[in-house]
TrEMBL record:
Lineage summary: Bacteria, Bacillati, Actinomycetota, Actinomycetes, Motilibacterales
UniProt name for this protein: Voltage-gated potassium channel
InterPro entries in the record: Volt_channel_dom_sf
Keywords: Membrane, Transmembrane, Transmembrane helix
Location in or out of the cell: Membrane
Parts of the chain that traverse the membrane: 52-72, 131-152, 189-209
Top-level taxonomic group: Bacteria
GO CC term (a single one): membrane
Membrane topology category: Multi-pass membrane protein
SUPFAM superfamilies xrefs: Voltage-gated potassium channels
């Protein structure tokens, strides 16, 4: 009797904690995107050091959040099957301690991807509007794409990389760089721009059709 009554209480506690963590963790996820961007662009050693410290603090918070959610989860197997990718992204920063240049570059790429995924999920937690969420995700995609183009050597300066990534994300325009990674990213961003256009068209259509449908429902029946 007491055991069965404890299960709903545990479930309600887990749901309450998860609900309270959503918005603050979502805000930290957006901050994490900006921190990773700053680390890629900063040249002053003091700024780089400060951003690195902030990045590790945010990383520690994300680890603590994942551990807390795992502790409160009733079905551990289901929880880890849904959140295994977070473990991978949380482990990526440790590649920075590797001496090999290829591993160091992989760590920087992983940090950018981790920030992009975290920022996208954060937008979903913070925004209920589909259009607002799509706008934030598009900004995250532009920032992540421009950073990857810079980190992987497709561009030497961040300004042109950001400009071309923004145009490719919004309009599907071609990138100025012609290396292998840039060509693959160009196709991915073109597909994303089509998906964004289709989503916006559907949202606008639903917005204009909703008043008409409401008016039809309020009309008295004939006959």
């Amino acid at each position: 009797m007491s055991r069965s009554s404890a299960l709903p209480r545990d479930a309600s506690t887990a749901e309450a904690v998860a609900a309270r963590l959503d918005k603050p963790m979502g805000a930290l996820g957006v901050v994490f995107v900006l921190v990773v961007l700053g680390q890629s662009l900063a040249e002053d050693p003091r700024v780089v050091r400060a951003l690195t410290v902030v990045g590790w603090l945010l990383w520690s918070v994300f680890v603590a959040e994942l551990a807390l959610r795992a502790y409160l989860a009733r079905d551990q197997r289901r929880f880890w099957s849904r959140n295994w990718w977070q473990v991978v992204f949380l482990a990526v920063p440790f590649l920075r301690f590797a001496r090999a240049l290829t591993l160091l570059r992989a760590a920087r790429v992983g940090s950018v991807l981790s920030a992009a995924v975290r920022g996208s999920r954060s937008a979903g937690r913070l925004l209920s509007s589909r259009v607002g969420w799509l706008a934030v995700v598009t900004v995250v995609v532009v920032l992540a794409s421009s950073q990857l183009l810079l980190v992987l050597g497709s561009y030497d300066d961040y300004g042109p990389a950001l400009h071309d990534a923004a145009l490719a994300t919004v309009t599907g325009a071609e990138l100025a760089a012609d290396d292998g990674f840039a060509q693959v990213l160009e196709v991915v961003l073109a597909v994303y721009s089509v998906a964004v256009f289709a989503t916006l068209a559907a949202a606008l259509g639903a917005y204009f059709l909703q008043p008409q449908q409401a008016g039809r429902e309020q009309e008295p029946g004939r006959g």
